[in-house]
Amino acid sequence: MLIMDELMSKFIEPECFRQFMNVVQPNFKFVSRTIVVKNCLGIYACERRRLEDVFVKFGQRVCLTTDLWSSLQKIFLTCVLQSIYF
User: Fold this and answer.
1) Which sign does the torsion angle of CA 63, 3, 11, 30 carry?
2) What is the pLDDT of residues 22-73, one digit of tens each?
């Protein structure tokens, strides 16, 4: 949920979130923010390896360019541009 909705890891700490999850799923097991961050970094590393394997398999060069903007509401937006060279 945090990754898909691009939420910050501190989203799971407030009491209102815990109360909400107790209503939605009483068996939900709460974990600390550090565990959430560790799991997200693990998913990132796994997906990065999978992507690297795809590029090695097809022998193509790829150029990724990123840019970061912030809005007036302090929302950060990232854009990724991709170029594949054959």
Assistant:
1) negative
2) 888 888 887 777 888 888 889 989 998 998 888 888 877 777 777 777 777 6
Interatomic CA distance for residues 10 and 78, integer angstroms: 20
| CA separation, residue 43 to residues 16, 26, 67, 71, 76 (Å) | 27, 26, 22, 28, 21
> For residue 69, how far is the Cα from the chain centroid?
17
| Dist. CA 7–CA 70, nearest whole Å | 15
Taking the C-alpha atoms of residue 64 and residue 22, their distance in angstroms, rounded to an integer, is 42
